[in-house]
Amino acid sequence: MAHRRLRLFLVLGDQLSFTSPALEGFDPAQDVVLMIEATGEATAVWSHKARIALFLSAMRHFCNALHREGWRWRYLALDEQPEVHGFGDRLKIALAERGAQRLVACEPGDLRLRAEIEDAARAAGVALEWREDTHFLCSRERFTRWAKGRKELRMEFFYREMRREHGVLMEGSEPAGGRWNFDADNREGFPKAGPGDIPAPAFFEPDRVTREVFEVVNRHFADHPGSLASFAWPVTREQALEALQRFIEARLVNFGRWQDAMWSGTPWGWHALIASSLNLHLLDPREVIAAAERAWREGRADLASVEGFIRQILGWREFIRGAYFHEMPALKQANHYSHERPLPRWYWSGDTRMACMREAVGQTLAHGYAHHIQRLMVTGQFALLAGIRPQA
What we know:
Elements: E1 7-10, E2 32-36, H1 40-43, H2 49-68, E3 73-76, H3 87-98, E4 102-106, H4 111-124, E5 127-131, H5 140-147, H6 155-166, E6 170-171, E7 174-175, H7 208-220, H8 237-255, H9 275-279, H10 285-297, H11 303-327, H12 355-367, H13 372-385
Parallel strand pairs: 1-2, 1-4, 2-3, 4-5
Antiparallel strand pairs: 6-7
Helix pairs in contact: 2-7, 3-4, 5-11, 6-11, 8-10, 8-11, 10-11, 12-13
């Protein structure tokens, strides 16, 4: 009887939080947390080795945290039945072996993955309970209401509404400082003498778990681009909080002023390097926004820097997620200019005479990172001007 009542609580690799809706109502005495590594998740979109390592290490650290809490868990690692690649197929294995009656899951940010989970549950005859992802400040339904009837979706208008709705950087009913957007103050280039001394971000020495993951990545994904030599990303909640604190205390002060600036040999600039922690749900966007706003109200950072930073999270991050769900599936095949050229081979090597492209691609291969101007105004803009097929 106990077997038939078993509930499996599926925790995806980018939902690594004890406050996740996927874990709400979990009963340690009866339920089981399920986590799955799948090679298909690194090949559905060809992934950098550092990205793969980040996911796997963070997942394994989170499972260790579950173990310390005394929660029952089932972790399907890559080396277990490695001949089965797809997430959905590996989920079927776990459902069959556990004899679960119900699968509880928080909605993924990828419609492809959602379909795989639904197909696996249906094939196994297991009831599937979807829960809304409350990590985001704007629900899918809320975004649909905002977008309804609009001829075009403008992030700026969405952002202002989010500011009002969540009371962020507001003074009564008006925006702090009398302006919604301080972008004009945040476009300086580095001086001719160079960027000068920039306080380093928080970096983290790979521990035993992460080093084991490196071996897995090099074994399963040897032909994938990029290097693990400089890997130092946060892979736990504690490290993510440390990275946020380091940014707020030492780097936010000049983030706005030079957020669009580039300089050779300066891969990080004044950027926060916490997007990966947000996307893995090691950090909550509310605590990040609150920390930045508090720094301004306490006089530790100017309003232009803080507004520019918060706009990336409360504005762009929420807006693009909403637009993805609102415009899919047509968005996946969109090609407004009918561009059909293939992606140049040097996008995977950095071997080009164009200095800006060589720098942006080179640092991406080395670190698995490029900031928004390098992605948009260098690698992305080149692709647009060269007529590259968007899907490539």
